Amino acid sequence: MGRRTFQRLLKLPVLLQPRPVPSHRSPSAAFFCQSHRPVYQHQPYRYSPARYPPAFGPSRTVRFLRSLLWATLFSMVGVYAGVGYLKGVYRGQTRVKLGSLADIGIAAEIMTEMDQHPSVQALKADPDFEEIWPLATNAEQTEKMKTTTDGKDIHHLVYTAFRGSRGVFPRAFYNRSRHILVMVAACSYGCEGEYGHLHNGAIETLIQESIRILAQFWFPPDMTYKLSELYVAFGEITHPNTIWCITCMPLATVGNLAEVVDEAKTAESRGQWSNVWPDWFNPRDWNQMTSSIVATVSPLDGHPIKQPQQATANAVGHFQVEDSEDWPPAPPPHKESFYGWTSREQSQEANPPNDSEEG
Prior knowledge:
The chain is α+β, with helices and mostly antiparallel strands and about 350 residues long. It has a domain at about 100-325: Hotdog Thioesterase (Thiol Ester Dehydrase, Chain A). The protein contains 12 helices and 7 strands. It has helices at about 5-10, 60-90, 100-115, 120-125, 140-145, 155-160, 200-220, 255-270, 285-290, 335-340, 345-350, 355-359; strands at about 130, 170-175, 180-185, 225-235, 245-250, 290-300, 315-320. It has a 7-stranded antiparallel β-sheet with strand order 1-2-3-5-6-7-4, with helices on both faces. The radius of gyration is 45 Å and the shape is elongated.
């Protein structure tokens, strides 16, 4: 450290005194002094529109249509790619080989689950219902069903295309006193349609088979009949891997059917959901009533007769019956006046046969 520096450190700091302001001038006098700048002369504003160079290219309409075309093209490509992806995922699912151990195990699990279903338990506990072999169309096929495990000898759609764990598992119960047939069916992945929904063809096949089985009990054994009309009206979308109940009964045994039809037509005219009946259906024709069978499809969790639920599908099947003296049967006494029916005994007494005319 130098000597001068040491001397500077020994000196006491000098306190600066505030600068005195003259008394004849105010502190802000400098701001009020006359400026030496020239006074600004205001000039009136003159508007001059901006000039833009003319636009070169297509018009707005052409550009809008071009944008719309590209948007439509990209949306179509996106929808097509999405549908293709869903189909690829659906088809890429692993399918169980028919007759393999996995197929037998899955089928056994489905049968066990179906046996424990509340509807099956309620029908088995009901003494009025008896379980029958569901889709056998004659006695020979019924015997083959009892002796054959896989049903190869039975040439039928349900037992050929819908066999194994991929198909349907039907069980049928019949009430002989009321002529009611209830088919409880479990549909597996082989019955799927597009986007995982249950194919309507599988439901229609089960309805047709249920109607045919009931026709075997309803019509006399020596009568020739053939299913000529089948009308199915699907309501809500159905899903596989669900147990469905198909309830069938002859239209002649349905009480107050005319009121049901009138209520359905009234609800349909008001835009509400209702049972859809075919155009050829006439509830006041007793011959048609005795030759037609109605069926409803619904997901039940109890007894289908004591605990009915809203149906997801309705069907009406009409049979063409050959002319017979024993058919159609006479309506119940409380329905004779409604159908204008006269019993055969009364008609014979009113119009006795004339032997002279026969001779």
